[in-house]
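Question (not urgent): is this output format expected?
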Amino acid sequence: MKSIQENIQNEIIIKNSRFLTYLIELSSSDISPFLESIRNKNLKANHYCYAYIYENEKGCSDDGEPSRTAGAPMLNVLEREELNHVLAVTVRYFGGIKLGAGGLVRAYTKSVTEALKKASLVELIEAYKVKITFDYKDEKQINYLVGEQAILQKDYTSTPTYIVFIEKEKIHSLYPYSYEILEECYMKKDS
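Got this back:
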């Protein structure tokens, strides 16, 4: 399973219609802020079609295009490439020439495929989101064990507590520290 290293934007023109595709790395299944932001940047567009995969959740929308001619083909590209934690949004500015159902499927498939050619992909591995509690004297060791990039939150109110991502196979390295598994998830594999 893979994800994108960074967000991507790409544009293609097909029969005078402009297809602007955004690939966005997701850290949750809440895609609404991204969709709203893209709509606000492209107020004169005709369609805002999307597909996403986050963990085991998938979704897509044709946003007014004929049924299954936009969102589903976009989702097929994400699935074919074995991507996760990714939102693909393709904004269409209609150019005056109708493409037909087959033409739309090809156009939306191509728009996401071309954007992915610009993307750097990174492998995702199974992990846990964990809450760790430890003594101040152990902070350096904890930072070493989980790595700075995996620390989501630090709290020093009474005893130090971190919320971190850790690979499933490395969970045993947290012993003897007090920890609680909050959820199973995926994380980017260290390069």
